[in-house]
Design goal:
five-stranded mixed β-sheet, globular, alpha/beta, 364 residues, eight-stranded parallel barrel
């Protein structure tokens, strides 16, 4: 296989620590800046923005990455999920290419998929797995670095902070829920004007995926809202199958009193093996890993449509952030037509630094 030509913002061939220190890479490392001009025709959570497009939590490891994304015209970006304590990344490798033909359906995701270090696929057709484990330098690092990220915002741009709770030895369920709130409060005090609560990461085995447990969702959202006051909240959720529609409706109802927007989806988890059928990502509980990129667009669009329908059915006013497989301006348009108030791209943006500029040039 031949590697894709465009060097992404994050180098999959290097460790997380190397990327954190040396990145961003490729054209994202260039000092040139795209300048938004004229009126700001869009809003998100009441804030004027130039375009309802950006990058979700994941690829933007620190303030350098955030500044690089903003400079490339990605107007709404999320600073990578942070914790109340230092937390190490999963072992290398953390990103592998997975060559999926067509949609990565749930049926395909139920069977082992082969992860590769290179691919012949063009950037617009990439599907990858990422398994970082939501690492964090802890507040001693990220509180100062996040302020630097905020300083990089231009007119009509928005930097969102993503947070998650951390289970420590001896923690009760109550302690865990309170940790979400405490971490969000740290972010609000650091100047975050919007906070995203990550309830859907599939790559941290001891904490699990919370968004499918309505009582936990409700209690975490309630405590976080009490901690941050008027700061708007976004919740990041995963994919709900059609058979889980009633569960999705329950979760939405539980969140509604506390959140201002819902972001979907995170990833679709699948078992990832090497060419010999062995677990490709080293370490315990890493056989299954989150998949993102072109193969999951169907799932992201499906969730946006269903969240839009629930918003109407329940008479609610939350905004919708559509994420998953946005690789081209046409993909962005599909999400907007499906009901997304904001669209974000991780894999597509990683390999195409001009994606936001292309969307603006197309008048979308």
């Amino acid at each position: 296989m031949q590697p894709v030509n465009q060097q992404p913002i994050y180098d999959p061939a290097k460790t997380y620590a190397y990327n954190f220190k040396k990145g961003p890479f490729g054209e994202f490392a260039m000092p040139t800046r795209y300048h938004n001009k004229g009126a700001m025709p869009f809003t998100f959570l009441g804030r004027p923005i130039f375009s309802p497009f950006g990058i979700p939590a994941g690829p933007l490891l620190n303030a350098k990455y955030v500044a690089a994304a903003l400079a490339k015209g990605f107007d709404v970006v999320v600073y990578k999920t942070q914790r109340s304590a230092k937390f190490e990344p999963n072992k290398f490798p953390n990103v592998l290419y997975v060559d999926v033909d067509g949609d990565l359906t749930l049926e395909k995701a139920a069977h082992p998929l082969v992860g590769h270090t290179t691919t012949h696929r063009p950037p617009t057709e990439l599907t990858i797995t990422n398994s970082f484990g939501m690492p964090s330098g802890g507040p001693d690092f990220w509180l100062t670095d996040f302020r630097h990220a905020l300083a990089a915002q231009g007119r009509g741009q928005l930097v969102i902070l993503s947070v998650v709770g951390t289970i420590r030895p001896g923690f009760s369920q109550d302690d865990y829920y309170n940790d979400f709130a405490a971490t969000a409060k740290l972010g609000a005090d650091a100047g975050a004007s919007v906070i995203e609560v990550n309830l859907s990461c599939p790559n941290v085995a001891n904490e699990g995926v919370i968004c499918y447990t309505p009582p936990a969702v409700a209690e975490i959202c309630r405590r976080v809202k009490a901690a941050v006051g008027s700061v708007p909240l976004i919740t990041k959720i995963g994919y709900y199958t059609p058979q889980q529609q009633a569960l999705l409706e329950t979760v939405v109802k539980e969140m509604a009193p506390y959140v201002d927007a819902i972001s979907a989806i995170n990833t679709i988890a699948a078992p990832i093996v090497d060419e010999h059928g062995e677990q490709a990502l080293p370490g315990p509980n890493r056989l299954r890993s989150g998949m993102c990129g072109a193969g999951i667009k169907w799932a992201g669009l499906d969730m946006v449509r269903r969240l839009a329908a629930l918003r109407t059915k329940l008479g609610l006013s939350y905004e919708i952030v559509g994420v998953g497989g946005v690789m081209t301006p046409a993909d962005y348009r599909q999400y907007r037509d499906a009901g997304a108030d904001l669209v974000q791209s991780a894999t597509g943006a990683m390999w195409n630094p001009d994606l936001a500029i292309d969307i603006k040039a197309a008048g979308l």
